[in-house]
Fold:
Amino acid sequence: MHAAVAPDVPAVMVCGDDELTVKERAARIFAAWQGGQSLGDEILDGAAGSVTEVLTVLDRAREALNTLPLPGSTKVVWLRNCTFLGSDRLGEAAAVTDALQAWARELQRLDWRGVRLLISAGRVDRRRTFVKVLEQIGRVEIYAAWSAEDRDWAERAAAWAYQRLREAGFEIDEEALVRLVNQVGPSPQLLHRELDKLCLYVLPRVRIGSADVAAVAVRHRTAQAFALADAVGDRDLPRALQCLEDELGSSGGEGDRSGLGILYGLAFKIRVLLWAKELVEQGWMHPEADYSTFKARLLRIPQEHLATDRRLTPLGVHPFVLHKAMRAARNYSRTELVRAMKQLLECNQAMVSSRLAPALLLQRLLVGIIGGSGGVRTPSP
Structure:
């Protein structure tokens, strides 16, 4: 949830590469300030593609702020979609930098009684004098987009989706939420669209299940690695081979590099399955525990029983990912998982030193891991 903006805050900048959140947050602030309800309010387009356009935008914004509001009212000026506050060539142009510094000095001297300034933008350079002045006068809110490189992206996405559904009057099963987040990937815009589709699909029901997600939610390209890892965890060889084919097919011809990337992703999956199995065997976790119970118990594990290097401990993995591996770990014995790590190493060596195609090596690897001594599980319908 976003913090409310106090009525006496004269200026707010909402920025970041999470375009959807920036847009919605700025619109909420504008509404909270009762923007658009007075004839003096102004919404200015901050998108500019040249230095001349930037200077024109700034001149209009300065003029709007210096125009007196109607008697008894508060004027709201919203400069939205700014494209010149980052560290790119346009933002670093000398004329743009000088103009922003001049405006910053004006803002410091401005009598803010009866006027409010709202700026929404993409990524900004926080080192700029203009941004620092806005932080002094009012508030700067930065919203970073989710990235697959972020350890907590899955939990952030799940919490975001859950809150959205709750506000719309819908509920979602935990398993369905996990599946949706992993299937869509770290994209707020795409996840927002898929939530709308799901809500329309389940009506007049208000609860969303895994079958609903499977029926209508798309699988984004960035989520293909999760699909392959899930298939390995489920010990579903046909699905794993199909996921491998899909992922290699979307690599844009960069077969060698994508092959190593897929291999490292599989190594991470097997390592997490080993950690999950260890947690169960030590009696610290129950494989059927729900997510909230799992997180609480994870924090109570005695630290002396875990490695200090977070790369070598389950605490270095996000709980969202580790919890998902709890049930999948039952599909393999400890011996099979240890053997799988050896097979991954051998595949890595072959991929670097041999002339065999990465696709063939990865196919053999999947057959070896999923087949194993325990055989291939029958795919669920």
The chain has three domains: 11-142, 153-218, 222-371. The longest strand covers residues 75-82. The domain at 11-142 is CATH 3.40.50.300 (Rossmann fold).
